[in-house]
Design goal:
By secondary structure, this protein is an alpha/beta fold. It folds into three domains: about 120 residues, Rossmann fold (3-Layer(aba) Sandwich); about 150 residues, no CATH class; about 90 residues, 3-Layer(aba) Sandwich (Trna Endonuclease, Chain: A, domain 1), CATH 3.40.1350. Helix 10 packs across helix 11.
Length: about 375
Amino acid sequence: MIPRLHLSDQVQTALRRSGIVALVGPRQVGKTTLARAFVDLQSSNYFDLEDPVSLARLAEPMLALAALRGLIVIDEIQREPGLFPVLRVLADRRDVDAKFLLLGSASPALIRQSSESLAGRIEVIEVGGFTLDEVGEPQSDTLWLRGGFPGAFLADSEEDSRAWRKQFLLALVERDLPQLGMSMAPATLQRFLVMLAHYHGQIWSAAEPARSLGLSEGTVRRYLDILTGTYLIRQLQPWHENIGKRQVKSPKLYWRDSGLLHQLFGISSWESLLANPKCGASWEGFVLEQVIHQLRPDEAYFWATHTGAELDALLMINGERIGIEIKRSDAPRLTPSMRHALDDLKLKRLWVIYPGSKSYSLHAQVTAVPFENFAQEMNAAG
């Protein structure tokens, strides 16, 4: 298993300052493995709410939890929302050496319940799949092709990786998403996911999927919000301000894990990925996720006008506007869209990320930078 030192440090820091820490993210991204570094999963301080024995131990939750000391881990916490008020009471004790680490397969219900019951008492950390800084640059192509879920990335072969992703998507449509309120037959739900794959990197419109599925646009938007809330889809919101131009006001969609996207496209190998017409869009989404993970902006948007000017990402970092363009080309050049973005958005810098090996200047404020070391160069430049 690849060590996730940055995540471990985040958890340790959060536990020092908060009585309750929640690790949220999709199933199978390694939340339980991460928790194993902090508590023995065989001890009485670990509860798995998918395990009948743990559920039985928590039949009287206040009685069961109040007597425990040290770090207490509760896995799949979203299955028992009634625990949140109990945790609020326990977290307010000042004379007891006990803290709680909650693991949840992220869902809108989990976030909403925790924010209502534990406001001011809980720190939430998002756990996703492996990232470039964890696996190392030599593994970037494998990470792009297979995605970051440990079961897919660490598989012994491409065939094993595809089999893992197929089973993950099957469990998603047959169990996980229906439990969250997406009441469609599994085959129809699978078709909806494929539709969303074809929207990857594009402006979202609910009208076409609604017509195809025989649903209302409101229902389709609600289903998309569920997928966003479970950290499977990213809705990158548009930036718009009064600059005298008609601007796009609908979000762009991205599958957050490139491996799941490739599975939905039926991409089975490196060669088929490079030959696929969606290759460029796939790489854009993959790079975008790595940029957001490593730069940790305060806010992230995209920008587009109805006259054709656009910017892949507008990041707000320490009060400054940083532009990101993602180009899968050998030698990207300065474009009219980049000039418009610099002028209209008042960017401090614009970075063009491409799959090359050398950095070079395109303009006083625009630099082309290789994907393999974009974070180091951007941080060095301030």
